[in-house]
Design goal:
α3 crosses α9, α5 runs antiparallel to α9 and α9 runs antiparallel to α10. A hairpin with a 2-residue loop joins β2 and β3. The protein is of the alpha+beta class and 574 residues long. The strands form four sheets. A six-stranded mixed sheet has the order 1-6-7-8-9-10, covered by helices on one side. It has helices at residues 12-22, 25-41, 46-54, 59-65, 74-82, 102-114, 117-131, 226-230, 292-314, 362-378, 400-408, 411-441, 447-450, 473-485, 491-498, 504-530, 540-552, 569-573; strands at 2-3, 90-96, 99-100, 133-142, 152-159, 164-169, 176-181, 236-240, 245-249, 254-255, 275-279, 319-323, 352-356, 459-464. It contains 18 helices and 14 strands.
């Protein structure tokens, strides 16, 4: 449903139509799909594997196979591999009038740590790759159960696509004019009152005894029990638009915090919707389509492995076969049991007792699974080296080039993802700053955030870290040597790479020690060759190194010559 203006949300019949569409079969099917995505990512694939097998076998066979159903987290593995925008670190800078504001940048860094913002963005990246749709919800949260403590923190959270609905803008269907939060109960779930437990969507209010409103679990408009009528409907829907913020029941009636009807319409205190929408490949609609292959593939892979396990176990046992005119009807097998076969006369066929063993094509079936997994990974720009079906621990360490090729396979997709976050992060921080301003003015902000101030008008620029290639020590030294030979690195630069935790002063001292030790070794070597001791004239080289590094930060200065029996700095290093 679409509306032309926010004022339409104030009409009860419009709200009722919106809620009816939320509870429609079409929308419930959409939420069921995203709920399945969520469950498979959370390693709860077993129920969907069971449904998959039911489509192939009768119920008796399915019941027999129940012991073999696998629950491998293939969806989580693949999604985490694809969602790597924030895996290599991120740097944020605040600009005011196109100039870097170092104080505001430092404040943003404090907020990032205090509110665990990087974790939120990493989770957003994963939800986006899994569902192709997700939103960040930025809103105040209480920090204590104590009713006298009115302090709030600003807690961003990530909502999966089955926990919210939107009303599209009339002239731009890819944008949301209003967000509606509500609980969701999957039709096929054992728990019909399922919620995630997230405070942002747990909007049902308890009664005076602490109990939540009774519900029969059905979407209907007829009268329920008296207890349900007292709470004015079993469902609660939280509306957020730029101007308005209110809660209404399933009949479209606006209610207060205790579920009672009210004529007061809440206003949005920050003047903008507290949501940041992330979507891939929108096609003139808010909900992006696609993304089913990873989840459906994970279910199919688990179903195939389940079949293989069942075949291997059931056909791995030898099948008893007895032939003859007179055979026992009930037997027990075991090392201490005897099977007696009687033959009345020689004219009758000789009775036989034997085990017949099946020869199922397990290797071919396993290769079929590997074939399926390889296709699924490669069509999603993932390396097949990320999944192993053996416990072979004797593999060789991959070279740096091999690791670079392996990582490069999905970097193009990561670059596309980064652009989405580059576009959306400034919106996130502007919403955060509005909540910061509102809560500070009302003195309801926790102390850790109350000390932080952000500019009125600012821009945030984001720089993402690049993946670091894992290389062996010999490869690392070879690269450093080649860079030094080309004049791209000094010895001090090489020490910085080797000892990143040391300060420049400590590195200078270490470089001096290395130089003195190398000089001493060279002098001793020359003495052995000539048979005469050669004493270096003073300690000019060490002093030259220290003076040059302090003045220009370059490599050590050569102050001795080969004619005096001393060795140059470059000769020592080589």
């Amino acid at each position: 449903m679409r509306i032309k203006s926010e004022e339409d949300l104030l009409k009860a019949d419009v709200r009722k139509k919106i809620i009816d569409e939320i509870n429609s079969t079409e929308n419930i099917n959409r939420k069921e799909k995203f709920y399945k995505f969520y469950q498979c990512y959370k390693d709860n694939t077993k129920e969907y594997v069971l449904r998959h097998i039911r489509a192939q076998f009768d119920q008796d066979t399915v019941n027999e196979m129940a012991y073999a159903i696998t629950n491998l987290g293939f969806t989580r593995k693949a999604v985490d591999k694809l969602a790597r925008v924030y895996n290599y670190g991120v740097e944020r800078e605040v600009y005011v009038d196109d100039k870097l504001d170092e104080e505001a940048t430092e404040a943003l860094t404090k907020i990032t740590k205090e509110c665990d913002v990087n974790r939120v963005f990493k989770k957003t990246n994963r939800w986006l790759k899994r569902d192709k749709n997700t939103v960040q919800f930025i809103a105040p949260r209480k920090v204590s159960f104590d009713p006298s403590d009115e302090k709030y923190t600003i807690k961003p959270t990530v909502l999966p696509a089955y926990l919210y609905d939107v009303v599209e803008l009339d002239d731009n269907r890819e944008l949301a004019g209003c967000y509606i939060l509500s609980d969701f109960s999957p039709r096929h779930s054992k728990n019909m009152y399922y919620t995630t437990g997230d405070a942002s969507i747990r909007i049902r209010q308890p009664d005076e005894n602490g109990n939540y409103p009774y519900s029969d679990g059905n979407d209907n408009l007829i009268a329920d029990s008296a207890k349900d009528q007292e709470n004015f409907g079993k469902g609660m829907y939280v509306f957020w638009s730029d101007k308005y913020h209110f809660t209404c029941n399933e009949k479209g009636i606006i209610v207060d915090e205790e579920g009672r009807p009210t004529t007061e319409v809440g206003l949005n205190p920050i003047g903008v919707k507290p949501f940041v929408n992330y979507a891939e490949d929108q096609d003139n609609s808010f909900w992006a389509q696609g993304g089913d292959d990873l989840v459906d593939g994970s279910i199919s892979i688990n179903a195939m492995i389940t079949n293989i396990i069942h075949i291997a176990i059931t056909q791995g046992y030898g099948q008893v076969v007895m032939t003859g005119p007179k055979l026992p009807r009930a037997i027990k097998l075991g090392p201490n049991k005897i099977v007696l076969l009687e033959q009345a006369n020689t004219d009758e066929p000789k009775p036989e007792f034997k085990f017949e063993s099946a020869n199922p094509p397990l290797n071919e079936l396993r290769q079929l699974v590997e074939f399926y997994v390889a296709l699924l990974l490669t069509t999603n720009n993932l390396s097949t080296s990320g999944v192993s079906t053996t416990l072979n621990g004797a593999g060789t360490f991959p070279s740096g080039i091999a690791m670079m090729i392996d990582k490069a396979e999905s970097m193009e997709d990561i670059e596309d993802q980064r652009q989405i976050f580059v576009d959306n992060e400034p919106t996130f921080w502007k919403i955060f700053a509005k909540w910061l301003e509102v809560l500070k003015s009302s003195k309801e902000l926790v102390d850790d955030l109350a000390e932080i101030t952000l500019p009125v008008d600012f821009d945030v620029q984001v720089k993402y870290g690049q993946p670091v290639t894992i290389i062996s020590e010999s490869e690392k030294l070879d690269i450093m040597k080649k860079k030094k030979d080309l004049g791209l690195l000094s010895k001090l630069d090489m020490l910085r790479m080797e000892y990143p935790d040391l300060t420049d002063e400590q590195l200078l001292k270490k470089l001096q020690e290395i130089t003195e030790e190398a000089l001493k070794a060279a002098v001793e070597a020359q003495a052995v060759m000539t048979g005469e001791p050669v004493v270096p004239e003073g300690n000019e080289e060490s002093e030259g190194i220290e003076n040059e590094e302090e003045s220009s930060g370059a490599s050590a200065k050569e102050t001795s010559s080969k004619e005096k029996g001393q060795v140059s700095d470059d000769d020592q290093g080589d």
